[in-house]
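User: Reviewer 2 asked us to show a designed sequence for the structure in our supplementary figure. I'm pasting the structure tokens here. Could you produce the per-position amino acids so we can include them in the response letter?
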């Protein structure tokens, strides 16, 4: 009872409802040229997450890399609400950098990059519409990454992903 009272007060203070978030809806394979992709919708939040895989590591040509590389891209499209980047130029700013690190940090434990080989895996999340919910892009990124790994295993580009 005390916990519920605290949750309602905390939600009201943030201008949100104390109701639990609706379950996300996923539409997989939304981007046909990506290795894995999904559109995640939850309430009024809509995010497209796509994974592309390049057959080289992201480091310089002269650097020897035994495993793969995981990178992330993140953007709020110009017509999405809450876009703080409308007045800024295309160069990277702190509003874009922090979500990229969160996406990479959340996905890194899910895949053994040594088993990936000399490949770069790029997770790209584009927010179509959002109500300030970071968890949806992380969930969508994980789904897109798992679809990409499943496709690479099926195509025999990977033999295993975890030790």
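Assistant: Here is a per-position design you can include in the supplement:
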């Amino acid at each position: 009872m005390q916990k519920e009272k605290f949750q309602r007060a905390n939600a009201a203070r943030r201008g949100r409802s104390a109701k639990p978030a609706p379950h996300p809806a996923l539409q997989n394979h939304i981007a046909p040229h990506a290795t894995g992709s999904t559109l995640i919708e939850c309430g009024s939040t809509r995010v497209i997450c796509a994974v592309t895989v390049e057959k080289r590591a992201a480091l310089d040509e002269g650097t020897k890399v035994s495993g793969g590389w995981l990178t992330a891209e993140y953007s709020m499209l110009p017509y999405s609400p809450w876009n703080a980047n409308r007045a800024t130029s295309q160069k990277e700013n702190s509003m874009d950098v922090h979500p990229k690190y969160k996406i990479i940090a959340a996905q890194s434990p899910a895949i053994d990059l040594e088993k990936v080989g000399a490949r770069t895996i790029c997770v790209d999340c584009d927010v179509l519409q959002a109500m300030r919910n970071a968890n949806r892009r992380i969930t969508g990124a994980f789904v897109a990454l798992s679809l990409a790994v499943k496709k690479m295993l099926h195509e025999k580009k990977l033999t295993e992903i975890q030790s």
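For the response letter, you might also mention the following. The domain at 20-154 is CATH 3.30.230.70 (Ribosomal Protein S5; domain 2). The longest helix spans residues 135-154.
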